[in-house]
Amino acid sequence: MIENKKVLILGMARSGYEVAKLISKANNNIYITDMKDQEEAKLKELEELGIEFIKTDEPESLLDETFDILIKNPAVFPFHPCVVKAKELNIPVVNEMEVAYHYINKPVKIIGVTGSNGKTTTVSLINEVLKNAKIPVKLGGNIGTPLSQIVNELEENDILLLEISDHQLIDMNDFKTDISVLTNLCPTHLDYHGSYENYKSVKKKIFNHHTKSDIAIINASNYDSMELTKDIASTKYYFNNEENYITDKGIYVDNELAINTSDIILKGHHNYENILATYLVAKVLGVDFKYVNEVLKEFKGVAHRIEYVRTIDGVSYYNDSKSTNPTSTITALKSFDGNIHLILGGMERSQDFHDLTPYLSKVKCIYAIGEVRGRIMAYAKEKNKESYEFATLKEAMVKIKEEVKPGDIVLLSPASASWDQYLKFEDRGDEFKSIVNNLESV
């Protein structure tokens, strides 16, 4: 716990706001900074708790040797001047989840889910299964609810289920899970970490402090995941291996049919992998598979991940705003047969769009948007693919309405982060859905 300390919180958002409130009752001197204006109601609440908000583009100017700790928002890059200065001053740099972990004062079982893709679907499935089995579970982390917000609600023997991103893991020290799920690994967020090797080493922190009594659930078909976890101390369970696998007709656990694929609403091999991981979590916890099967017959997926929005004039619209890297977009492209109007683009993060090349035959036209649109246009021209360039999603949607024909698919799957124009990918997806839901039939 943080007591009698001078604290600088770098970045407000939801996690900064919640961790500020969490540590406010222990005689701490707390300052929270952000570049943007914040909601007046939240600022008033923080002020009443004795927390000072400072709007600034140069938070490093506030930091000096009198501070005891820097709590960094996960979206803030590790080489931000304020982070660099803190390390030069030997001021510990942590994040909201690491802080909140030390406020868990009751025995709970912690399940952490990470990976390059599939985290949100997997953690959502696990949550639904546990609720269906009447097992007390609290869900939080990268899925949208900071641990700081729910830590005081935890009861003895609860399961604490957390989606954990690499942006959170990078500032983890003491945090430890009882069960860790690694869905897969692929090159992504390289601008944040500097290299794929750095990214993988950060992902490995999901197994920090594990012993033989802790559980690791790993994708056996993902080479990088297998290589990364060769030397971890955890007891390992594998999916996509000779015992736990997927066929066209069913999903098998311990070489026995768990469910027919025809009984599952979610489709696509990538979703079946997430389901396999969920079965293994259920197995480890001793949860009857009937509870998993009941969920799978009803579960329609998560918002912003290949989310069906609407069909109008024979054109189907899908929101895949959560695809912030090319690998995720490949997964989306593989989910459709063809005639795709693909909306690509967002923040420039040196992502390699050439990874999409084997799947371009399915794409009828590319609509390049955002900060990275120039590179996308160059790529489309190189591949002789019809394309159009727009600054914003809204502008692209006007053109798409003119171009589509019955039977076509409009897919927002940007292969890019949203931070060039949006606070989060959900905002981008919500704008897309709002535009689509307001389209008029012709």
Brief description of this entry?
It is built from 16 helices and 20 strands. It has 442 residues and is of the alpha/beta class. Strands 7-8-6-9-10-11 form a 6-stranded parallel β-sheet.
Write a structural description.
There is one protein chain. The protein is α/β, with parallel strands linked by helices and 442 residues long. The chain folds into three domains: 6-94, Rossmann fold (3-Layer(aba) Sandwich); 101-296, UDP-N-acetylmuramoyl-L-alanine:D-glutamate ligase (3-Layer(aba) Sandwich); 307-437, Protein-Tyrosine Phosphatase, Chain A. Helix content is 32%, strand content 21%. The chain contains 16 helices and 20 strands. The chain has helices at residues 13-22, 40-48, 81-88, 96-101, 119-132, 147-150, 166-169, 190-193, 196-203, 223-228, 269-285, 289-296, 326-333, 373-382, 393-403, 425-437, and strands at 6-10, 29-34, 52-55, 69-72, 93-94, 109-114, 137-141, 159-163, 179-182, 215-219, 235-239, 245-246, 250-253, 256-260, 307-312, 315-319, 340-345, 363-369, 387-389, 409-412. Helix 5 crosses helix 12 (289-296). 46% of the residues are buried.
Give the helices and strands, then pairings.
Blueprint: E1 6-10, H1 13-22, E2 29-34, H2 40-48, E3 52-55, E4 69-72, H3 81-88, E5 93-94, H4 96-101, E6 109-114, H5 119-132, E7 137-141, H6 147-150, E8 159-163, H7 166-169, E9 179-182, H8 190-193, H9 196-203, E10 215-219, H10 223-228, E11 235-239, E12 245-246, E13 250-253, E14 256-260, H11 269-285, H12 289-296, E15 307-312, E16 315-319, H13 326-333, E17 340-345, E18 363-369, H14 373-382, E19 387-389, H15 393-403, E20 409-412, H16 425-437
